[in-house]
Write a structure and sequence with these properties.
Distance between the termini: 13 Å
Oligomer: single chain
Order of helices and strands: EEHEHH
Radius of gyration: 13 Å
Number of helices: 3
Structural class: alpha+beta
Helix content: 40-55%
């Protein structure tokens, strides 16, 4: 789901080995190109951590969320 500069991802699945890794890398590149500020993955996993995902405190998340929602970007 994309709202302003926030992209909230849901669980990823794949039928081909490493397909979700390729999809995640492509998604992050696209979001950076479009000017997104926050990619919400809901839960840190070893899979997402290997790509640089981190867990942040709630206060920091809310600040980043407010900044993201203030960005006039679109997914396309």
């Amino acid at each position: 789901m994309a709202i302003a500069g926030l992209f909230a991802a849901e669980s990823m699945f794949h039928h081909v080995s490493d397909a979700s890794k390729v999809a995640l890398v492509a998604l992050v590149a696209h979001l950076r190109q479009r000017g997104y500020a926050l990619l919400e993955i809901q839960q840190l996993t070893p899979h997402t951590a290997q790509f640089g995902a981190i867990e942040i405190p709630r206060r920091q998340y809310l600040r980043r969320l407010a900044q993201a929602l203030d960005r006039p970007v679109t997914f396309r």
